[in-house]
């Protein structure tokens, strides 16, 4: 009996796209300046309680950057150092296939809250006018949780970008992620709704500036489009396993919480 691969297949990308475009069971929380934010409302079923961590979806209508440029921004790790103000450390660890890799990312948290990190399997799918990136947390044997950071968990996070013209696109971000620690779940959910529009505005600005930056920084080097350029070591996906949130130790940060942090987390 063969073991199913951890790598996403066509069905995963199709289901992710459907969730991005679906309007069923989504409650709108924000609608301003060509941007909308929704939170998924999962109908209660007998014996099943709704998830404690919301799934959030953010849509941005972009009128001055191509879908291809926005897609490149999300992949280009060297450029991310220029535009991501919360990033502490980010690097790709290994290739898993022509359209999948495993990587590490850590970020700053507000005030006295411990910084977070995550190890994720990222996979991507491109057609003529659509770009999809999905990631989820995995356990890597050489990158266990660190004592100085809280290991967060991405249950599903990704982007769906649809071209609407030579210099325009629809940009969707969807995420269900648990920052772990003993942060109140209501605070996590509230902060994510406030944070998402600000993060996407930052990504949009990065897209506006990317073509000029890339022209000066290895303009022909795009291993996410041209796998033959990828110099990362190959890794067997079977060495990875899905990171479950409940298998990670919670760090009690409730004593560090300031009532204002629900806004400062934005």
Automatic annotation (TrEMBL):
Single Gene Ontology MF annotation: lipid binding
Give the UniProt keywords, A-Z: Acetylation, Cell projection, Cilium, Cytoplasm, Flagellum, Lipid transport, Lipid-binding, Membrane, Phosphoprotein, Transport
Any one Gene Ontology cellular component term annotated for this protein: motile cilium
Q: Which InterPro entries match?
A: STARD10_START, START-like_dom_sf, START_lipid-bd_dom, START_lipid_transfer
Domain START, first and last residues per copy:
22-212
Q: Which stretches does the entry tag as region Disordered? A: 211-266
Q: Name the principal localization, coarsely classed.
A: other
Can you name this protein? START domain-containing protein 10
| Localisation per UniProt entry | Cell projection, Cilium, Flagellum; Cytoplasm; Membrane
């Amino acid at each position: 009996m063969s073991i199913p691969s951890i790598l996403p297949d066509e069905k995963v990308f199709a289901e992710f796209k459907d969730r991005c475009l679906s309007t069923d069971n989504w409650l709108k929380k924000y609608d301003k300046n060509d941007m909308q934010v929704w939170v998924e409302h999962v109908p209660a079923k007998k014996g099943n309680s709704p998830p404690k961590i919301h799934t959030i979806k953010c849509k941005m209508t972009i009128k001055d950057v191509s879908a291809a440029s926005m897609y490149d921004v999300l992949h280009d790790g060297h450029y991310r150092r220029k535009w991501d103000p919360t990033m502490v450390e980010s690097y790709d660890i290994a290739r898993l296939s022509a359209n999948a890799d495993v990587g590490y990312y850590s970020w700053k948290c507000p005030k006295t809250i411990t910084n977070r990190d995550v190890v994720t399997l990222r996979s991507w799918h491109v057609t003529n006018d659509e770009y999809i990136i999905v990631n989820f947390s995995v356990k890597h044997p050489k990158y266990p949780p660190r004592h100085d950071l809280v290991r967060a968990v991405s249950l599903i996070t990704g982007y769906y970008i649809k071209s609407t013209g030579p210099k325009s696109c629809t940009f969707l971000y969807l995420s269900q992620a648990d920052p772990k620690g003993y942060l109140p779940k209501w605070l996590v959910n509230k902060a994510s709704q406030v944070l998402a529009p600000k993060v996407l505005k930052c990504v949009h600005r990065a897209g506006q500036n990317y073509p000029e930056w890339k022209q000066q920084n290895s303009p022909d080097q795009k291993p996410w489009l041209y796998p033959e350029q990828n110099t990362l070591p190959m890794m067997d996906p079977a060495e990875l396993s899905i990171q479950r949130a409940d298998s990670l130790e919670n760090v009690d940060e409730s004593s560090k919480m300031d009532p204002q942090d629900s806004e400062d987390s934005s």
